[in-house]
Amino acid sequence: MKKILIIDDEEKLRGLLARIVKSEGFDVLEAPDLKSGFKKLEHNDVDVVLCDVKLPDGNGVDFVQNIKASFPLVEVILLTAFGKISDGVQAMKNGAFDYIVKGDDNDKIIPLLYKAIDKSQLQKKVIQLEKRIADKYSFDTIIGKSKALEQAIDLAKKVAKTNSTVLLTGETGTGTEVFAQAIHENSNQVGKSFVALNCSTFSKEILESELFGHKQGAFTGAIKDKKGFIEEANGGTLFLDEIGEMPLELQAKLLRVLETNEYIPVGDTIPKKSNFRLIAATNRDLKAESEAHQFRSDLYFRLNIFEIAIPPLRERIKDIAPLTHYFVKQFSEKTNKKTLQIAPDFLQKLEAYHWPGNVRELKNIIERSVILSDDNLTSAVLPYEMQHQENSNTKSMSAFSMQSVEKLHIQKVLNYSKGNKAETARLLEISIATLYRKLDEYNIQ
Fold it and tell me: Quick one: which of 57, 148, 358, 369 is 20 to 30 A from 306 by CA?
């Protein structure tokens, strides 16, 4: 039940107003002066205050400021016997919802009350939604206690409060967007727009339109003006995932935006401005690609102000168990099952696997396993290659050895490329020099 506080020193008028408000189904509190009214606010969850302007211990117009300073979600409607335009203007400046004259405007009170309650409730919902978003994307929700992950989180926390451009590097599926969201929610841009665009999803022409927007008639199908992601991100954060896939021509245009905050929509001639924080992510070695002239070196240096390397899951073996428990609980609830128990052999197989798809692959495998299981999660519900991985040439090596996992993965990719070392390096997304060093280290022929 919504609570209304009536502050008026005239007992009969206050009582009459209380009866009218109660007849609408509201819970009513009463106070004869500002001091006792403020105490009522401190001890009750009040939605709207109906307050007289002239009271024994002060002026209601000034009192609005005190209420909004301490209880910003409470709406205040001021009531006065003698309306003054100057008082009304000042009341609204101080944060009052409205200012009405007793007697003349009595028929307005109840409709105004409902409008004020609607505004108060909307503000509360917005705050609750913002809190849920902040909780969902806080750094505390990033699961894992491995040293490599904690180092990445520490770096992200340090850069979050700045406006610096951030480059997130890591393999596909490591959770770059989760990091980007957490940085945004802990930044000066919190509460503003967070817009994300995957640069690998579109052709050059469509990506340009999505990024910069376009004018009506700019190309076939452009039936109206369209805002681009750069405009949508104004004042907030723009997250460009897979930025290494962006065509060179668009890289030059993006660089200009970063340097001048100006851009021109497709088909337009008038520059627009947008001030945003950029977070970019890539699974490519942009330094090597810039040296090979496959990525603009000037853009790379502009992006690489603050790099955070997000470790692959195979380097976070100790994080597999907590991630597994989290996903099992999540998908058990999603499929209306009781939370399934995890058998030791199930977890052992997960920890022995090399995870080329990282956390995203783990999430998908857990979802599949939960769907297939009715009781405990055992290794029997895992994909064939995970069940039989002990039959590979890593059988004699420790399943927990990073070296054995890395050696196996390099061998698989080398076999896939039919011994082509340049192609193997490209697929592994490492330099050819690094590949030769690894081949020598692991004695791979």
Answer: 358
